[in-house]
Amino acid sequence: MNRHIFGDKLLLGLSHLLGKPFFRNSVDGPDFETIRTSIAIQGEFAATPGYVPIRAKTIDGVHEAGFKVLHWRGAHAPLILFNQGGGEQPFDRSVAKMFPEDSDTTCNVIAVQTSSQHSLKDLNRNFASLTTYTTMVALAVELTQWLLEHPLLSERAGAAVTGYSLGGFVTNRHHLIHDTADVYLPFVAGTRHAEIFFTSIRSGDPAQRNPDRVRDALNFDHAWMEVPHPNVFPSLGRYDQLNLLEIQRPSYGDMPVEIWEGGHLYGVRRPDMLRRRIETKLMEAIQQKEV
Known about the structure:
This protein has twelve helices and nine strands. Helices cover 38% and strands 18% of the residues. It has helices at residues 3-18, 32-37, 93-98, 120-126, 130-149, 166-177, 196-199, 205-209, 211-218, 221-224, 245-248, 271-290, and strands at 40-42, 50-58, 61-71, 79-83, 108-113, 159-164, 183-187, 235-237, 258-260. A seven-stranded mixed beta sheet has the order 1-2-3-5-4-6-7, with helices on both faces. Strands 8-9 form a two-stranded parallel ribbon.
């Protein structure tokens, strides 16, 4: 067996052992847009390194999320917003390896934390409901936009929105809804978010009996095909066993996609590669604006 496939299958086996099925209690609830437009974020932005919690009023009750400023280089510096991956603990683990404390980056770097999965226990409890999961995704999209709209970030030279796996789906959702960043870099994700719960991640009986409800809430491939995406630069893993290439590659239509010769964790194991791709695409976009 290919070593990348073997590694992913071990990862999925561990997640099945430790995690409970998603959406095992309910797949009923409002659609994505109804949930998203109900969100009201409460919080403050601090232009200094450190963690900032936020609270959001939603249809699903109060959700708690946050963000962490890893590097602050001034109001005019380019901005990188990196969205948390599913189950990633700590939430800034991947991006902190790309941009460690002694990094020489010239960018402001902010890690965006989702709600409802601050621990494995938290994740297992909250994601029994499809509505809570959908709210988590929608809040990440809106928190990303809240940051991009903040006055202290309004004079930035340019902005990149990015993320890995779940963070990649959030990245694509933000582009489709807001498109207020200069570049988008979704890693090992596509536009058929729901399909992971029928191919690689366990879902409960309500989801298995009503797959269209999960797809209506989480997939956005049809809307994706209706608009151009010149500022989106996706990357997928050829041997990814979680976000399968044969499902996610077609979900992008005929747009260019970078294909890694690895599995789901290929990128996070190469933080320097991810950093180079993010910074290169962002700087290219900034140079084009200056011409």
